[in-house]
Amino acid sequence: MAILRTPEVARGEYGDLFEFLMKELKLFKRQLLVMLKHVQTGESMVYEQAWYDYHLKDRLTHLLKNDDYAEVAGLPINKKGQTGIYIETRYVKSGKLVGLQLVEARPHEGGRYVGLTPGVVFTDADGERMLPFAKGLK
């Protein structure tokens, strides 16, 4: 079991969760053109986003950095794309791997996306424990 986090790449900005899973941890491999499979379980990656009101940015950042997932689960989720911040989740259905990260879309900076919190990856029993939280972010 492990809980792994992406490093800070600039003040208040963190490495990308997808790149972390694919290139650094090498926990997924490509099969065909669009299929991503977990290297140990063979399961496909599930990708989802939960969008939040922009005024919750600082609160979400604080809660996620302090691993307060129960409080995050109680916050209202918007319709996709209504605001500029979202929690990205990537997991496998067994829960053997669950990853999440708070991301901000910055169209004023050429459309780049910035990780506001470290991308956190939970594996094995830690992932199974976090799976209900990740699935609830819809």
Commentary on this structure:
The chain contains four helices and ten strands. Strands 1, 6, 7, 8, 9 and 10 form a six-stranded antiparallel sheet that branches. The protein is an alpha+beta fold and 138 residues long. The longest helix is centred in the last third of the chain and has 13 residues, at 124-136.
Keywords:
138 residues; alpha+beta; six-stranded antiparallel sheet; 10 strands; 36% strand
In brief:
About 25% of the residues lie in helices and about 35% in strands. The protein is of the alpha+beta class and about 140 residues long.
Write the layout of secondary structure elements.
Blueprint: E1 2-5, E2 8-10, E3 13-14, H1 17-24, E4 28-31, E5 35-38, E6 46-52, H2 57-65, H3 69-73, E7 85-91, E8 97-106, E9 112-115, E10 120-123, H4 124-136
Antiparallel strand pairs: 1-10, 2-3, 4-5, 6-7, 7-8, 8-9, 8-10
Order of helices and strands: EEEHEEEHHEEEEH
Number of helices: 4
For the report, how would you describe the main beta sheet? 6 strands, antiparallel
Unreliable stretches (pLDDT < 50, length at least 5) are none
The residue fraction in helices comes out at 25-40%
Overall morphology: globular
Going by helix content, strand content and strand pairing, the class is: alpha+beta
The quaternary organization reads as single chain
The span between the termini is 26 Å
Average pLDDT rating? 91
- The overall strand count is 10
Q: What's the gyration radius in Å?
A: 14 Å
Strand content: 35-45%
